[in-house]
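Deliverable D2.4 — example input (C-alpha cells):
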C-alpha cells in the first residue's frame, strides 16, 4: 500500500475575489442600463485559472426572458471590473458583495486582464473579517 501525503491538490488552490459587471437590457434599448456589480469568490490553482473561472461564472449568469410588456430582456455579462487574490477557507463562487445600479455604458467599467488588480502593481489585497458559513464544494 502506498501512503498518501497530507498535502492534497486542493491545498495548493488560492482564493480570489472577482468583481463581475452584469447588465440587463431590454431589446432595442440604448441605455441607461440596469446593472449589477457582483463580487464572487473563486478557488483556483493559478491567477490565470482564476481569471478563466471568473469569466465562466459571468457567462453562466447570462439569460434571456420576456418581461411583462412582452419585450425580450437580455441579462448579459459585460466583463470583470476587478480580480484580487484573498485568503481564507471559503466556498467557490459565493457572492460576497454586490450592488444594483443604472449606467448608460457599463462596458467601460469592465477592465482588460492586465488592468485587473491581480495582474497590475501594486496589488490590492482582501482580508476577511468574519468566517464564512460552511458550504459543500462541488467535486
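Example output (designed residues):
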Amino acid at each position: 500500500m502506498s501512503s498518501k501525503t497530507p498535502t492534497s491538490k486542493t491545498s495548493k488552490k488560492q482564493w480570489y475575489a472577482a468583481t463581475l459587471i452584469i447588465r440587463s437590457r431590454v431589446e432595442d434599448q440604448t441605455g441607461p442600463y440596469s446593472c449589477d456589480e457582483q463580487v464572487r469568490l473563486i478557488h483556483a490553482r493559478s491567477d490565470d485559472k482564476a481569471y478563466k473561472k471568473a469569466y465562466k461564472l459571468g457567462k453562466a449568469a447570462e439569460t434571456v426572458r420576456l418581461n411583462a410588456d412582452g419585450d425580450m430582456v437580455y441579462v448579459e455579462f459585460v466583463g470583470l471590473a476587478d480580480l484580487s487574490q484573498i485568503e481564507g477557507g471559503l466556498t467557490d463562487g459565493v457572492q460576497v458583495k454586490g450592488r444594483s445600479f443604472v449606467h448608460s455604458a457599463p462596458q467601460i467599467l469592465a477592465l482588460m486582464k492586465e488592468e485587473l488588480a491581480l495582474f497590475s502593481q501594486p496589488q490590492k489585497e482582501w482580508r476577511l473579517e468574519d468566517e464564512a458559513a460552511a458550504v459543500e464544494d462541488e467535486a
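Residues 1-10, 129-139 have pLDDT under 50 and may be disordered.
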